[in-house]
Each structure stands twice: as structure tokens, then as C-alpha cells.
Write a structure and sequence with these properties.
This protein starts with 6 loop residues before the first strand and ends in a 9-residue tail after the last strand. By secondary structure, the chain is α+β, with helices and mostly antiparallel strands. The radius of gyration is 16 Å and the shape is globular. The chain has helices spanning 16-30, 36-53, 90-102, 114-122; strands at residues 7-10, 55-61, 64-72, 75-81, 106-110, 125-132, 139-145.
Length: 154
């Protein structure tokens, strides 16, 4: 039987600890270019700042929290998939869900994270411009979802 894929559902307050564990797992290998103090502040900001102002979607696979996406309007404020669930369609499913809700999406990704840039490009995002990240001072790439080309009606 084919894998049914992740279940995407809205965030609930009891999910907080599981989301923090996903964040820890996802950032462990991806953000080696950021210092520990910055990562500690960002982890604290998930509960204090990001979740309260975001529309957050949780991905579950086999009954376990596998990832989450924070959406603020058309802005993907965060997308994280636990390391053990990566490369299983979780991130793509979360982005597809957000795209269906928002119609178009924008996000920023650190230039020092080429795997994430490649992932977003594979998901149909195109670069808009580069700038320096306000909090870290590191360069980020602003990306936007690209409309899928449609076949002309015959």
C-alpha cells in the first residue's frame, strides 16, 4: 500500500514541546553557521513571538509530529522538519498546504544554507533579491513562489 503522506493540521497549544523538539532536530545540522546564543534566542522566540502571531500548521506522520510551518499572510516565517523525517515529502506537503491557503508565498533563506535554497527552488520558488538579515547580519535570499504555467485551453 502506498504511503498516505503526512497529515497537516492546525497548531494547538499542547503541540509546543513537540514543535520545539522538531526545531532542535531541524536546526542541529542546518544552522552551523549561526552562533549558539542566536539559536537559543530564536528557540525562545518560537513560543513567545512566532507562534502567537502566525497561522501555524503541523505535519504528522505515523502519529508523530514531523514538522511545522508558520505562515504570516503570504510570508513563510518558518518551515522546519525533524531530521529523521526529512526527504519524505513533509516540507513539500507543508508548503503546498500554505500555497493553497495564501495563493502565493514569500520567504527568506540564509545564503549559507544551500540545501534549503535548493529545496525551495525544487518546490517552485525563485529568487527575488538578497539582503542582510536584521538579527544575524548574515546575507539572506528573498524568494517567491512562482505560478505554475498552465496549458492554453484548446
Amino acid at each position: 500500500m502506498p504511503d498516505p503522506g503526512p497529515v497537516i493540521r492546525p497548531y494547538r497549544a499542547p503541540d509546543l514541546e513537540a514543535l520545539l523538539q522538531v526545531w532542535d532536530s531541524a536546526t542541529g545540522g542546518a544552522y552551523g553557521f549561526l552562533d549558539a546564543a542566536y539559536l537559543e534566542r530564536e528557540r525562545a522566540n518560537i513560543a513567545a513571538q512566532y507562534l502567537p502571531i502566525s497561522e501555524t500548521w503541523v505535519a504528522e506522520l505515523d502519529g508523530r509530529t514531523a514538522g511545522f510551518l508558520c505562515l504570516q499572510g503570504i510570508e513563510v516565517a518558518g518551515l522546519f522538519v525533524a531530521a529523521q523525517f526529512q526527504r519524505r515529502g513533509i516540507g513539500r506537503a507543508l508548503l503546498s498546504h500554505a500555497l493553497a491557503l495564501a495563493g502565493t508565498l514569500e520567504l527568506e533563506v540564509f545564503l549559507a544554507n544551500p540545501a534549503a535554497i535548493a529545496f525551495y527552488e525544487a518546490c517552485g520558488f525563485a529568487p527575488l533579491y538578497q539582503r542582510l538579515h536584521d538579527d544575524s547580519g548574515l546575507p539572506v535570499l528573498r524568494m517567491q513562489s512562482v505560478e505554475a504555467e498552465t496549458e492554453p485551453a484548446s
